[in-house]
Write a structure and sequence with these properties.
The protein is an all-alpha fold and 356 residues long. The chain is built from 12 helices and 2 strands, in the order ααααββαααααααα.
Length: 356
């Protein structure tokens, strides 16, 4: 448990102290955000706000994770390194996207093909490696079964199917977080709640791992404590960044941060065997992504818009809600989704441990 607190504390300190330097550096370099012309007109005042703040979150995650191991002497594990690889690789894809936007001074960076190729290569490497590195208990970092709170034995993908499934999960969540990152602090605050939930889930899995305590309701997962340290470091990094990203934002995380966080959340769901539970925990991200999909489908079939604008948060802005009102209410929804997901996780454990 001490390692989890150290990771969160160090990452929080790094993020909150490093971000002001990035604000000044990116400001001097002219790395200011371009704003969509068709978006809410109130957002035009944000043009020129420094972006690529996700760099601070990524550095905070790595330094928080490494500091935790230095101070506790815990062993670095394959599961945690794979999740960190996934997070960093997608952060690099996002960084290239942001950098191209800034160099060309437009709101479009990498084209769709290039971004999808980056996500595809990263996801394939992660998927292939995640079913390897089997430990002495016969557990790999990820399972080839679909999972809710545990593996669903009758729903197995096989190794090849898992790689395909992993790509879909990673692409979906990285794009969902990216779509949510449209208001000051919305993605960072929501991500912090999801990551806090996963910190608790990982620690609970560690305390009740079958390798430690083979009792009813135990979890067949590899390296839950180390994965929890990654989640805690990411939570601390998001909270520290939120200090500067909350409305009115002095810096945006950009695709550097949103793609990295989306990949991190997807990776956590796979190594903790909770892919379907994440749909509940990250409900705000799901709704944001669905709003875009529904907007496209309805417009192409009826030539009418279902929402005033997608993603969903812009619909409320155009309806007259203040930006801070939208953010706070979406944070409340995110907290309720996280609490519901955690409740489902715990209730399943109670049922399993009682043998019902």
């Amino acid at each position: 448990m001490r390692g989890v607190f150290i990771a969160a504390g160090v990452a929080l300190a790094v993020s909150i102290l490093l971000t002001p330097y990035l604000i000044r550096f990116f400001g001097r370099q002219g790395f200011g955000q371009e704003i969509r012309a068709e978006g809410p007109q109130s957002h035009q005042a944000k043009r020129g706000t420094p972006t690529m703040g996700g760099v601070a979150i990524l550095l905070a995650i790595w330094l928080g994770y490494l500091a935790s191991h230095v101070f506790t002497g815990l062993q670095i594990t394959a599961s945690a390194l794979l999740v960190l690889f996934l997070t960093t690789a997608l952060g690099v894809v996002g960084f290239l996207d942001d950098f191209i936007k800034l160099r060309r001074q437009r709101n479009l960076g990498l084209n769709k093909t290039s971004k999808l190729v980056g996500q595809f290569v990263t996801a394939v490497v992660f998927g292939v490696l995640a079913v390897r590195f089997v430990n002495e208990d016969g557990l790999a970092p990820a399972s080839t079964n679909l999972s809710f709170v545990r593996d669903i034995a009758v729903l197995s993908f096989g190794a090849v199917g898992f790689v395909v499934f992993g790509y879909l999960v990673i692409a979906a969540w990285s794009n969902a977080v990216n779509l949510t990152d449209g208001l000051d602090g919305l993605a960072a605050g929501t991500s912090a709640m999801v990551l806090a939930t996963y910190s608790i889930i990982c620690f609970w899995q560690f305390r009740n791992a079958c390798a430690i305590n083979a009792a009813a309701g135990c979890y067949q997962v590899r390296d839950p404590l180390d994965v929890g340290i990654v989640a805690a470091a990411a939570m601390g990094g998001c909270i520290g960044f939120l200090w500067w990203n909350a409305a009115p934002a002095r810096i945006f995380m950009g695709d550097t941060g949103s793609l990295a966080l989306g990949g991190l959340i997807a990776g956590l769901s796979m190594v903790t065997r909770t892919e379907l539970l994440l749909v509940v925990i990250g409900g705000v991200f799901v709704v944001e992504a669905l709003s875009v999909a529904l907007q496209i489908v309805v417009f192409r079939t009826t030539r009418r818009r279902l929402f005033r604008m997608a993603p969903f948060h812009h619909h409320f802005e155009l309806a007259g809600w203040a930006e801070t009102t939208v953010i706070i209410r979406f944070w409340l929804l995110a907290a309720m989704c996280a609490a519901l997901g955690l409740g489902l996780f715990y209730s399943e454990w109670l049922t399993a441990s009682e043998g019902f």
